[in-house]
Design brief:
This protein is mainly α. The chain has two domains: about 200 residues, no CATH class; about 220 residues, no CATH class. The protein is about 75% helix and about 0% strand. It is built from 20 helices and two strands. The chain has a two-stranded antiparallel sheet with strand order 1-2. Helix 3 packs antiparallel against helix 4, helix 6 runs antiparallel to helix 7 and helix 15 runs antiparallel to helix 16. The longest helix has about 30 residues. The two termini are about 35 Å apart.
Protein backbone atom coordinates (compact mmCIF):
# COMPACT_ATOMS: atom_id res chain seq x y z
CA UNK A 1 0.00 0.00 0.00
CA UNK A 2 1.58 3.28 -1.18
CA UNK A 3 1.45 6.63 0.64
CA UNK A 4 -1.57 7.94 -1.27
CA UNK A 5 -3.54 4.70 -0.98
CA UNK A 6 -3.16 4.79 2.80
CA UNK A 7 -5.06 8.09 2.87
CA UNK A 8 -7.98 6.98 0.68
CA UNK A 9 -10.57 6.64 3.52
CA UNK A 10 -9.90 10.25 4.53
CA UNK A 11 -9.84 11.49 0.93
CA UNK A 12 -13.23 9.85 0.36
CA UNK A 13 -14.71 12.50 2.67
CA UNK A 14 -12.27 15.40 2.47
CA UNK A 15 -12.26 15.78 -1.33
CA UNK A 16 -16.01 16.47 -1.78
CA UNK A 17 -16.13 18.54 1.43
CA UNK A 18 -13.29 20.86 0.33
CA UNK A 19 -14.63 21.07 -3.21
CA UNK A 20 -18.00 22.18 -1.83
CA UNK A 21 -16.31 25.32 -0.50
CA UNK A 22 -14.56 25.85 -3.84
CA UNK A 23 -17.74 25.39 -5.89
CA UNK A 24 -19.41 28.27 -4.03
CA UNK A 25 -16.83 30.63 -5.54
CA UNK A 26 -17.59 29.64 -9.15
CA UNK A 27 -19.90 32.10 -10.88
CA UNK A 28 -19.78 31.16 -14.57
CA UNK A 29 -22.74 29.12 -15.82
CA UNK A 30 -22.18 25.34 -15.75
CA UNK A 31 -18.82 25.59 -13.98
CA UNK A 32 -20.31 24.54 -10.60
CA UNK A 33 -21.90 21.52 -12.29
CA UNK A 34 -18.62 20.60 -14.00
CA UNK A 35 -16.66 20.88 -10.75
CA UNK A 36 -19.25 18.88 -8.81
CA UNK A 37 -19.33 16.17 -11.50
CA UNK A 38 -15.54 15.88 -11.62
CA UNK A 39 -15.42 15.67 -7.82
CA UNK A 40 -18.12 13.02 -7.72
CA UNK A 41 -16.29 10.94 -10.33
CA UNK A 42 -13.09 11.26 -8.30
CA UNK A 43 -14.96 10.11 -5.19
CA UNK A 44 -16.34 7.17 -7.20
CA UNK A 45 -12.84 6.21 -8.33
CA UNK A 46 -11.66 6.35 -4.70
CA UNK A 47 -14.53 4.06 -3.72
CA UNK A 48 -13.59 1.61 -6.48
CA UNK A 49 -9.97 1.60 -5.33
CA UNK A 50 -11.02 0.99 -1.70
CA UNK A 51 -13.27 -1.85 -2.86
CA UNK A 52 -10.43 -3.53 -4.72
CA UNK A 53 -8.19 -3.24 -1.65
CA UNK A 54 -10.89 -4.67 0.64
CA UNK A 55 -11.61 -7.56 -1.73
CA UNK A 56 -7.93 -8.34 -1.85
CA UNK A 57 -7.41 -8.59 1.88
CA UNK A 58 -8.27 -7.01 5.20
CA UNK A 59 -10.29 -3.85 5.94
CA UNK A 60 -8.65 -0.47 5.43
CA UNK A 61 -8.17 1.54 8.64
CA UNK A 62 -7.12 5.19 8.89
CA UNK A 63 -6.33 7.12 12.08
CA UNK A 64 -6.76 10.88 11.80
CA UNK A 65 -3.65 12.68 12.99
CA UNK A 66 -2.05 9.31 13.83
CA UNK A 67 -4.05 9.26 17.07
CA UNK A 68 -4.88 5.64 17.86
CA UNK A 69 -8.48 4.65 18.59
CA UNK A 70 -10.40 4.95 20.82
CA UNK A 71 -8.86 8.32 21.68
CA UNK A 72 -8.47 9.52 18.11
CA UNK A 73 -10.88 9.61 15.18
CA UNK A 74 -10.78 6.35 13.23
CA UNK A 75 -12.02 5.71 9.70
CA UNK A 76 -12.57 2.18 8.47
CA UNK A 77 -13.65 0.55 5.22
CA UNK A 78 -14.62 -3.13 5.08
CA UNK A 79 -16.74 -5.11 2.62
CA UNK A 80 -20.03 -3.70 3.92
CA UNK A 81 -18.93 -0.09 3.86
CA UNK A 82 -17.23 -0.56 0.46
CA UNK A 83 -20.52 -1.78 -1.02
CA UNK A 84 -22.41 1.24 0.31
CA UNK A 85 -19.64 3.63 -0.81
CA UNK A 86 -19.99 2.30 -4.35
CA UNK A 87 -23.74 2.96 -4.20
CA UNK A 88 -23.38 6.51 -2.82
CA UNK A 89 -20.58 7.75 -5.08
CA UNK A 90 -21.89 5.89 -8.13
CA UNK A 91 -25.41 7.32 -7.71
CA UNK A 92 -24.03 10.83 -7.35
CA UNK A 93 -21.84 10.51 -10.45
CA UNK A 94 -24.58 9.02 -12.61
CA UNK A 95 -27.14 11.63 -11.54
CA UNK A 96 -24.80 14.56 -12.16
CA UNK A 97 -23.61 13.34 -15.57
CA UNK A 98 -27.14 12.74 -16.83
CA UNK A 99 -28.81 15.66 -15.11
CA UNK A 100 -27.01 18.74 -16.41
CA UNK A 101 -29.81 20.04 -18.67
CA UNK A 102 -32.56 18.96 -16.30
CA UNK A 103 -30.99 20.89 -13.41
CA UNK A 104 -30.06 23.90 -15.55
CA UNK A 105 -33.75 24.31 -16.44
CA UNK A 106 -34.81 24.76 -12.81
CA UNK A 107 -31.70 26.16 -11.09
CA UNK A 108 -30.92 29.78 -11.91
CA UNK A 109 -27.32 30.78 -12.61
CA UNK A 110 -26.97 32.73 -9.35
CA UNK A 111 -28.13 29.72 -7.29
CA UNK A 112 -26.04 27.11 -9.11
CA UNK A 113 -22.91 27.42 -6.90
CA UNK A 114 -24.92 26.95 -3.71
CA UNK A 115 -26.97 24.06 -5.10
CA UNK A 116 -23.95 22.05 -6.22
CA UNK A 117 -22.06 22.91 -3.03
CA UNK A 118 -25.01 21.38 -1.14
CA UNK A 119 -24.83 18.34 -3.45
CA UNK A 120 -21.16 17.79 -2.61
CA UNK A 121 -21.85 18.25 1.11
CA UNK A 122 -24.59 15.61 0.89
CA UNK A 123 -22.10 13.31 -0.86
CA UNK A 124 -19.38 14.03 1.72
CA UNK A 125 -21.82 13.51 4.59
CA UNK A 126 -23.06 10.14 3.36
CA UNK A 127 -19.53 8.97 2.59
CA UNK A 128 -18.46 10.13 6.06
CA UNK A 129 -21.24 8.14 7.70
CA UNK A 130 -20.08 5.02 5.90
CA UNK A 131 -16.37 5.31 6.75
CA UNK A 132 -16.68 6.71 10.31
CA UNK A 133 -15.83 4.18 13.02
CA UNK A 134 -17.21 6.10 15.97
CA UNK A 135 -20.77 6.95 16.93
CA UNK A 136 -20.36 10.71 17.33
CA UNK A 137 -18.79 11.34 13.94
CA UNK A 138 -21.53 9.24 12.37
CA UNK A 139 -23.94 11.77 13.91
CA UNK A 140 -21.89 14.73 12.64
CA UNK A 141 -21.83 13.41 9.08
CA UNK A 142 -25.49 12.43 9.37
CA UNK A 143 -26.39 16.07 10.08
CA UNK A 144 -24.17 17.36 7.27
CA UNK A 145 -25.85 15.07 4.73
CA UNK A 146 -29.33 15.79 6.11
CA UNK A 147 -28.99 19.58 6.02
CA UNK A 148 -27.56 19.44 2.51
CA UNK A 149 -30.37 17.10 1.40
CA UNK A 150 -32.99 19.58 2.63
CA UNK A 151 -31.42 22.22 0.38
CA UNK A 152 -31.43 19.85 -2.60
CA UNK A 153 -35.07 18.81 -2.14
CA UNK A 154 -36.26 22.41 -1.80
CA UNK A 155 -33.92 23.70 -4.53
CA UNK A 156 -36.23 23.17 -7.50
CA UNK A 157 -38.99 25.30 -8.97
CA UNK A 158 -41.90 23.34 -7.46
CA UNK A 159 -43.09 25.27 -4.39
CA UNK A 160 -44.76 22.11 -3.06
CA UNK A 161 -41.25 20.97 -2.22
CA UNK A 162 -41.09 23.45 0.66
CA UNK A 163 -43.72 21.80 2.92
CA UNK A 164 -42.35 18.40 1.87
CA UNK A 165 -38.87 19.53 2.92
CA UNK A 166 -40.22 20.85 6.22
CA UNK A 167 -41.83 17.50 7.02
CA UNK A 168 -38.62 15.73 5.95
CA UNK A 169 -36.64 18.08 8.24
CA UNK A 170 -38.91 17.45 11.24
CA UNK A 171 -38.80 13.67 10.87
CA UNK A 172 -35.06 13.72 10.22
CA UNK A 173 -34.46 15.88 13.29
CA UNK A 174 -36.52 13.56 15.48
CA UNK A 175 -34.58 10.58 14.15
CA UNK A 176 -31.21 12.26 14.74
CA UNK A 177 -32.29 13.27 18.26
CA UNK A 178 -33.29 9.72 19.13
CA UNK A 179 -29.98 8.46 17.79
CA UNK A 180 -28.02 11.03 19.81
CA UNK A 181 -29.90 10.17 23.01
CA UNK A 182 -29.03 6.49 22.49
CA UNK A 183 -25.38 7.28 21.87
CA UNK A 184 -25.33 9.50 24.96
CA UNK A 185 -26.68 6.68 27.12
CA UNK A 186 -24.01 4.28 25.86
CA UNK A 187 -21.29 6.86 26.39
CA UNK A 188 -22.55 7.45 29.91
CA UNK A 189 -22.22 3.74 30.69
CA UNK A 190 -19.01 2.93 28.76
CA UNK A 191 -17.06 6.19 28.41
CA UNK A 192 -16.27 5.57 24.74
CA UNK A 193 -17.66 6.49 21.33
CA UNK A 194 -15.54 4.16 19.18
CA UNK A 195 -17.75 1.30 17.94
CA UNK A 196 -15.09 -1.42 18.37
CA UNK A 197 -14.24 -0.20 21.87
CA UNK A 198 -17.93 0.20 22.66
CA UNK A 199 -18.55 -3.44 21.74
CA UNK A 200 -15.97 -4.56 24.31
CA UNK A 201 -17.07 -2.23 27.09
CA UNK A 202 -20.82 -2.78 26.84
CA UNK A 203 -20.26 -6.38 27.92
CA UNK A 204 -18.65 -5.13 31.14
CA UNK A 205 -21.56 -2.88 32.16
CA UNK A 206 -23.32 -4.27 35.21
CA UNK A 207 -26.65 -2.46 34.74
CA UNK A 208 -27.87 -3.22 31.23
CA UNK A 209 -31.09 -1.18 31.42
CA UNK A 210 -29.51 2.01 29.97
CA UNK A 211 -27.98 -0.09 27.20
CA UNK A 212 -31.40 -1.56 26.39
CA UNK A 213 -32.88 1.94 26.32
CA UNK A 214 -30.04 3.06 24.07
CA UNK A 215 -30.71 0.18 21.69
CA UNK A 216 -34.35 1.28 21.47
CA UNK A 217 -33.54 4.95 20.85
CA UNK A 218 -30.89 4.19 18.22
CA UNK A 219 -33.05 1.65 16.40
CA UNK A 220 -36.10 3.92 16.26
CA UNK A 221 -34.01 6.95 15.31
CA UNK A 222 -32.31 5.17 12.45
CA UNK A 223 -35.60 3.59 11.38
CA UNK A 224 -36.94 7.15 10.98
CA UNK A 225 -33.92 8.12 8.91
CA UNK A 226 -34.23 4.99 6.76
CA UNK A 227 -38.00 5.44 6.25
CA UNK A 228 -38.81 1.97 7.56
CA UNK A 229 -42.59 1.37 7.67
CA UNK A 230 -44.54 2.97 9.40
CA UNK A 231 -41.96 5.75 9.86
CA UNK A 232 -41.90 6.54 6.14
CA UNK A 233 -44.43 9.39 6.05
CA UNK A 234 -41.94 12.04 4.88
CA UNK A 235 -40.51 9.98 2.04
CA UNK A 236 -43.26 10.05 -0.65
CA UNK A 237 -43.66 13.83 -0.77
CA UNK A 238 -39.90 14.44 -0.58
CA UNK A 239 -39.29 12.17 -3.55
CA UNK A 240 -42.30 13.53 -5.47
CA UNK A 241 -41.58 17.25 -5.28
CA UNK A 242 -37.78 17.28 -5.27
CA UNK A 243 -36.02 17.99 -8.59
CA UNK A 244 -36.05 14.81 -10.64
CA UNK A 245 -32.28 14.36 -10.66
CA UNK A 246 -32.13 14.94 -6.90
CA UNK A 247 -34.73 12.21 -6.44
CA UNK A 248 -32.65 9.84 -8.58
CA UNK A 249 -29.63 10.54 -6.36
CA UNK A 250 -31.34 10.33 -2.96
CA UNK A 251 -33.60 7.39 -3.83
CA UNK A 252 -30.58 5.33 -4.78
CA UNK A 253 -28.52 5.87 -1.65
CA UNK A 254 -29.95 8.02 1.19
CA UNK A 255 -32.00 5.31 2.92
CA UNK A 256 -29.26 2.73 2.28
CA UNK A 257 -26.81 4.76 4.37
CA UNK A 258 -29.19 4.84 7.35
CA UNK A 259 -29.83 1.11 6.99
CA UNK A 260 -26.07 0.58 6.94
CA UNK A 261 -25.67 2.41 10.27
CA UNK A 262 -28.58 0.45 11.75
CA UNK A 263 -26.99 -2.87 10.78
CA UNK A 264 -23.53 -1.89 11.93
CA UNK A 265 -24.73 -0.59 15.30
CA UNK A 266 -27.02 -3.49 15.98
CA UNK A 267 -24.64 -6.26 15.01
CA UNK A 268 -21.42 -4.68 16.26
CA UNK A 269 -22.64 -3.32 19.59
CA UNK A 270 -25.92 -4.94 20.65
CA UNK A 271 -26.17 -8.47 19.25
CA UNK A 272 -23.18 -9.82 21.14
CA UNK A 273 -23.83 -8.05 24.43
CA UNK A 274 -27.60 -8.20 24.99
CA UNK A 275 -29.13 -11.57 25.82
CA UNK A 276 -31.77 -12.59 23.30
CA UNK A 277 -31.25 -9.48 21.19
CA UNK A 278 -31.21 -11.44 17.93
CA UNK A 279 -34.77 -12.59 18.70
CA UNK A 280 -35.79 -9.06 19.76
CA UNK A 281 -34.27 -7.64 16.58
CA UNK A 282 -36.25 -10.09 14.46
CA UNK A 283 -39.45 -9.67 16.49
CA UNK A 284 -39.35 -5.90 16.04
CA UNK A 285 -38.20 -5.57 12.45
CA UNK A 286 -39.66 -8.62 10.67
CA UNK A 287 -43.34 -7.65 11.16
CA UNK A 288 -42.56 -4.07 10.11
CA UNK A 289 -40.67 -5.36 7.08
CA UNK A 290 -43.62 -7.56 6.07
CA UNK A 291 -46.11 -4.70 6.50
CA UNK A 292 -43.82 -2.34 4.61
CA UNK A 293 -43.58 -4.76 1.69
CA UNK A 294 -47.35 -5.28 1.50
CA UNK A 295 -48.53 -1.73 2.21
CA UNK A 296 -45.87 -0.06 0.05
CA UNK A 297 -46.63 -2.36 -2.88
CA UNK A 298 -50.41 -1.99 -2.45
CA UNK A 299 -50.31 1.81 -2.40
CA UNK A 300 -47.97 1.87 -5.41
CA UNK A 301 -50.50 -0.21 -7.36
CA UNK A 302 -53.10 2.57 -7.10
CA UNK A 303 -50.88 5.64 -7.43
CA UNK A 304 -51.15 7.70 -10.61
CA UNK A 305 -48.21 10.02 -9.96
CA UNK A 306 -45.10 8.23 -11.22
CA UNK A 307 -42.74 9.62 -8.58
CA UNK A 308 -45.11 8.85 -5.69
CA UNK A 309 -45.63 5.39 -7.17
CA UNK A 310 -41.90 4.73 -7.13
CA UNK A 311 -41.56 6.32 -3.68
CA UNK A 312 -44.02 3.84 -2.18
CA UNK A 313 -42.24 1.12 -4.09
CA UNK A 314 -39.09 2.17 -2.22
CA UNK A 315 -40.92 1.61 1.08
CA UNK A 316 -41.56 -1.97 -0.07
CA UNK A 317 -37.96 -2.45 -1.20
CA UNK A 318 -36.66 -1.20 2.16
CA UNK A 319 -38.92 -3.87 3.62
CA UNK A 320 -37.07 -6.53 1.59
CA UNK A 321 -33.74 -5.34 2.99
CA UNK A 322 -35.00 -5.38 6.57
CA UNK A 323 -36.66 -8.76 6.07
CA UNK A 324 -33.33 -10.29 5.09
CA UNK A 325 -31.50 -8.59 7.97
CA UNK A 326 -34.10 -9.63 10.53
CA UNK A 327 -33.44 -13.32 9.82
CA UNK A 328 -29.93 -12.93 11.34
CA UNK A 329 -28.53 -15.63 9.04
CA UNK A 330 -25.69 -15.62 6.51
CA UNK A 331 -28.05 -16.00 3.55
CA UNK A 332 -30.50 -13.42 4.91
CA UNK A 333 -27.80 -10.80 5.50
CA UNK A 334 -26.29 -11.52 2.09
CA UNK A 335 -29.71 -10.92 0.53
CA UNK A 336 -30.17 -7.70 2.53
CA UNK A 337 -26.83 -6.14 1.64
CA UNK A 338 -27.03 -7.32 -1.96
CA UNK A 339 -30.48 -5.74 -2.32
CA UNK A 340 -29.06 -2.41 -1.16
CA UNK A 341 -26.89 -2.48 -4.27
CA UNK A 342 -29.45 -3.93 -6.68
CA UNK A 343 -32.29 -1.68 -5.56
CA UNK A 344 -30.05 1.35 -6.09
CA UNK A 345 -29.46 0.19 -9.67
CA UNK A 346 -33.13 -0.41 -10.42
CA UNK A 347 -34.61 2.60 -8.65
CA UNK A 348 -31.86 4.93 -9.87
CA UNK A 349 -32.61 3.86 -13.44
CA UNK A 350 -36.35 4.37 -12.99
CA UNK A 351 -35.99 7.87 -11.56
CA UNK A 352 -33.50 8.83 -14.30
CA UNK A 353 -36.14 7.70 -16.81
CA UNK A 354 -38.69 9.91 -15.02
CA UNK A 355 -36.27 12.85 -15.34
CA UNK A 356 -36.08 12.23 -19.09
CA UNK A 357 -39.85 11.88 -19.39
CA UNK A 358 -40.42 15.13 -17.46
CA UNK A 359 -38.52 17.05 -20.16
CA UNK A 360 -41.09 15.96 -22.74
CA UNK A 361 -44.32 15.32 -20.81
CA UNK A 362 -46.55 17.95 -19.23
CA UNK A 363 -46.43 16.20 -15.87
CA UNK A 364 -45.49 12.99 -14.09
CA UNK A 365 -48.89 11.32 -13.96
CA UNK A 366 -49.93 8.21 -15.86
CA UNK A 367 -52.19 10.15 -18.23
CA UNK A 368 -49.32 12.54 -19.01
CA UNK A 369 -47.23 9.73 -20.52
CA UNK A 370 -50.01 8.18 -22.62
CA UNK A 371 -48.51 6.90 -25.88
CA UNK A 372 -45.21 8.62 -25.15
CA UNK A 373 -43.17 5.44 -25.67
CA UNK A 374 -43.71 5.78 -29.44
CA UNK A 375 -41.89 9.12 -29.37
CA UNK A 376 -39.31 8.17 -26.71
CA UNK A 377 -38.56 4.52 -27.50
CA UNK A 378 -35.05 4.44 -26.02
CA UNK A 379 -36.07 6.09 -22.75
CA UNK A 380 -39.00 3.78 -22.16
CA UNK A 381 -37.05 0.69 -23.20
CA UNK A 382 -34.50 1.53 -20.47
CA UNK A 383 -37.37 2.16 -18.04
CA UNK A 384 -38.76 -1.31 -18.79
CA UNK A 385 -35.35 -2.89 -18.12
CA UNK A 386 -35.07 -1.11 -14.74
CA UNK A 387 -38.68 -2.06 -13.97
CA UNK A 388 -37.98 -5.73 -14.71
CA UNK A 389 -35.02 -5.56 -12.33
CA UNK A 390 -37.24 -4.04 -9.64
CA UNK A 391 -39.73 -6.89 -10.12
CA UNK A 392 -36.93 -9.46 -9.94
CA UNK A 393 -37.15 -11.04 -13.37
CA UNK A 394 -34.38 -13.64 -14.05
CA UNK A 395 -31.46 -12.11 -15.92
CA UNK A 396 -31.63 -8.86 -13.98
CA UNK A 397 -29.83 -7.73 -10.82
CA UNK A 398 -33.06 -7.63 -8.81
CA UNK A 399 -33.57 -11.36 -9.33
CA UNK A 400 -30.30 -12.27 -7.60
CA UNK A 401 -31.10 -10.57 -4.30
CA UNK A 402 -34.70 -11.85 -4.29
CA UNK A 403 -33.42 -15.37 -5.00
CA UNK A 404 -31.13 -15.15 -2.01
CA UNK A 405 -33.99 -13.77 0.07
CA UNK A 406 -36.19 -16.72 -0.89
CA UNK A 407 -33.40 -19.16 0.00
CA UNK A 408 -32.94 -17.40 3.34
CA UNK A 409 -36.67 -17.75 4.05
CA UNK A 410 -36.60 -21.46 3.23
CA UNK A 411 -33.75 -21.94 5.72
CA UNK A 412 -36.00 -20.82 8.59
CA UNK A 413 -37.53 -23.53 10.73
CA UNK A 414 -40.90 -21.82 10.97
CA UNK A 415 -42.72 -19.44 8.67
CA UNK A 416 -40.32 -19.87 5.77
CA UNK A 417 -42.97 -20.93 3.25
CA UNK A 418 -45.19 -18.02 4.27
CA UNK A 419 -42.32 -15.58 3.71
CA UNK A 420 -41.65 -17.08 0.28
CA UNK A 421 -45.32 -16.58 -0.55
CA UNK A 422 -45.02 -12.98 0.64
CA UNK A 423 -41.99 -12.32 -1.57
CA UNK A 424 -43.67 -13.86 -4.63
CA UNK A 425 -46.95 -12.02 -3.97
CA UNK A 426 -45.18 -8.67 -3.59
CA UNK A 427 -43.25 -9.33 -6.80
CA UNK A 428 -46.58 -9.88 -8.59
CA UNK A 429 -47.78 -6.59 -7.09
CA UNK A 430 -44.65 -4.95 -8.53
CA UNK A 431 -45.63 -6.41 -11.92
CA UNK A 432 -48.98 -4.62 -11.60
CA UNK A 433 -47.62 -1.13 -10.89
CA UNK A 434 -44.79 -1.38 -13.41
CA UNK A 435 -47.29 -2.67 -15.99
CA UNK A 436 -49.52 0.36 -15.38
CA UNK A 437 -46.62 2.57 -16.49
CA UNK A 438 -45.90 0.36 -19.51
CA UNK A 439 -49.58 0.15 -20.47
CA UNK A 440 -50.05 3.91 -20.43
CA UNK A 441 -46.79 4.65 -22.27
CA UNK A 442 -47.09 1.98 -24.95
CA UNK A 443 -50.85 1.57 -25.45
CA UNK A 444 -52.29 4.96 -24.51
CA UNK A 445 -53.37 7.61 -26.99
CA UNK A 446 -50.66 10.26 -27.35
CA UNK A 447 -51.41 13.96 -27.17
CA UNK A 448 -50.73 15.87 -30.36
CA UNK A 449 -47.85 17.91 -29.00
CA UNK A 450 -44.33 18.67 -30.12
CA UNK A 451 -41.75 16.45 -28.46
CA UNK A 452 -38.74 18.17 -26.88
CA UNK A 453 -35.52 16.24 -27.52
CA UNK A 454 -34.10 14.47 -24.48
CA UNK A 455 -30.43 15.36 -23.83
CA UNK A 456 -28.16 12.70 -25.26
CA UNK A 457 -26.11 12.52 -22.04
CA UNK A 458 -29.21 11.61 -20.06
CA UNK A 459 -30.22 8.87 -22.52
CA UNK A 460 -26.68 7.45 -22.56
CA UNK A 461 -26.32 7.40 -18.77
CA UNK A 462 -29.84 5.96 -18.43
CA UNK A 463 -28.89 3.10 -20.72
CA UNK A 464 -25.61 2.60 -18.86
CA UNK A 465 -27.65 2.00 -15.71
CA UNK A 466 -30.06 -0.27 -17.61
CA UNK A 467 -27.15 -2.33 -18.96
CA UNK A 468 -25.70 -2.52 -15.43
CA UNK A 469 -29.02 -3.98 -14.24
CA UNK A 470 -28.64 -6.74 -16.81
CA UNK A 471 -24.88 -7.13 -16.37
CA UNK A 472 -25.04 -7.61 -12.61
CA UNK A 473 -27.96 -9.99 -13.13
CA UNK A 474 -25.89 -12.23 -15.39
CA UNK A 475 -22.53 -11.71 -13.65
CA UNK A 476 -23.25 -10.73 -10.02
CA UNK A 477 -19.73 -11.57 -8.84
CA UNK A 478 -18.60 -8.20 -7.43
CA UNK A 479 -21.67 -7.21 -5.36
CA UNK A 480 -22.31 -10.82 -4.37
CA UNK A 481 -18.77 -11.31 -3.06
CA UNK A 482 -18.96 -8.06 -1.11
CA UNK A 483 -22.37 -9.00 0.29
CA UNK A 484 -21.26 -12.47 1.39
CA UNK A 485 -18.18 -11.02 3.08
CA UNK A 486 -20.32 -8.32 4.71
CA UNK A 487 -22.69 -11.00 6.05
CA UNK A 488 -19.76 -12.89 7.55
CA UNK A 489 -18.49 -9.68 9.17
CA UNK A 490 -21.89 -8.93 10.71
CA UNK A 491 -22.44 -12.48 11.94
CA UNK A 492 -18.93 -12.49 13.41
CA UNK A 493 -20.27 -10.12 16.06
CA UNK A 494 -23.20 -12.34 17.05
CA UNK A 495 -22.94 -14.78 19.95
Amino acid sequence: MNALTAHLPALQVIVPMLMAAFVVLLRARSLPWAAATATSLLAFSIAIQLTLIVMGGSPVTYQMGSWAAPYGIELQVDALSALVLLVVTGASSVALIGGRESLAAIISADREPYFFAAWLLALAGMAGIVVAADAFNIFVFMEISSLASYVLIAGGSDRRALPATFKYLIMGTVGATFYLIGVGLIYMMTGTLNLADMELRVHEVADQKPILAAAGFITVGLALKAAIFPLHVCLPNAYTYAPHIVTAFLAACATKVSLYVLLRFDFFVFQQNLVGHDFQFAAYLMPLAILGILVGSAVAMFERNLKRLLAFSSVAQIGYIMLGASMVTATGLTAATLHMFNHALAKGGLFLAIAAIAIVAAGCRLNDIAGLARRMPWTFAALVVAGLSLIGVPGTAGFISKWYLINAALELETGGVALVALILTSSLMAVVYIWRIVESAYFGEPADTKVTPVPAALVVILWAVAVANIGFGIMPGLPLELSETAADILLGHVK
